[in-house]
Amino acid sequence: MKSALVTGSSGDIGRSVCRKLAADGWSLYLHYHSNKKVVDDLIYEFTILYPEQDFFPLQVNLEEDYAIERLKKQIFSLNAVIFAHGTTEYGLLKDLTSEKMDTLWKMHVKIPILITQAFQNKLHRDRNGRVVFISSVYGEMGSGNEVFYSTVKGAQLAFVRAYSKEVASWGITVNAISPGAIDTHMNEHYSDNDLEVLKQEIPMRRLGKASEVSFWVSQLLQPESSYMTGQSLTISGGWLK
Ligand SMILES: NC(=O)c1ccc[n+]([C@@H]2O[C@H](COP(=O)([O-])OP(=O)(O)OC[C@H]3O[C@@H](n4cnc5c(N)ncnc54)[C@H](OP(=O)(O)O)[C@@H]3O)[C@@H](O)[C@H]2O)c1
Fold this sequence. Notes:
It comes from Jeotgalibaca dankookensis. The protein is built from eight helices and seven strands; from the N terminus they run E-H-E-H-E-H-E-H-E-H-H-E-H-H-E. With 241 residues, the protein is an alpha/beta fold. The protein has one domain: NAD(P)-binding Rossmann-like Domain (Rossmann fold, 3-Layer(aba) Sandwich). The chain has a seven-stranded parallel sheet, with helices on both faces. Helix 1 links the parallel strand 1 and strand 2. Helix 1 packs parallel to helix 2 and helix 4 packs parallel to helix 6. 40% of the residues are buried. The protein binds NADP nicotinamide-adenine-dinucleotide phosphate. NADP nicotinamide-adenine-dinucleotide phosphate binds next to helix 1.
């Protein structure tokens, strides 16, 4: 049975990815940082719906280097990794501290790359491994007021392009999904007015749903997606494209 690690399973996009992959027949390592209950509830739900599959919770702070050793100790078989964790930092670059930059860099770039490195041999084993980053349209187009977030999301895309070439002959595909504005906890800070303004900028005039992102994760994990690598799929209702 195939196993996937989903980082940020306790988040809105991660939870939707877990629901879709569990329904597709995957066993899952469900990572969370602080929101244990969400993952416990998901595992309870999945154990009833999919009794033949395995579901393990994994608590790790992905801002810390020790994360790698903790994950290595708890993950045995692995065919896919989906990086769906992360936070942003709003504000002008002139106000961003060096410490905050380190945090964002580690969380979005360094630790995911170390995780990929640590599990490369496991992903190689069935010659059909999958790595998927949930990046952002801001990583492609950039955004004022979220300059460093845009920078780390762009770095994820650069990693996807480069690493995909290094492991292509091993049958591992490495891709990204770049969502636009998705209706999740991350965007709860918007006032009703700001939300309206944002929607008017989006050609589809609405935010995306987490399920509209997880659908594409599921597609990238299909065996039939084995010839597509080094790409970024933009899921943004036409926004910023
Ligand atoms: N929502 C959007 O519009 C949008 C657009 C483009 C890209 N994205 C990207 O999509 C991904 C998921 O976002 P979301 O909208 O699902 O956000 P969300 O609902 O706020 O979920 C954030 C997730 O990140 C985890 N997390 C936060 N700090 C962490 C840490 N220090 N170590 C490990 N995990 C940590 C959270 O874990 P706990 O809850 O357990 O603490 C949670 O699972 C992020 O990478 C985000 O940049 C989102």
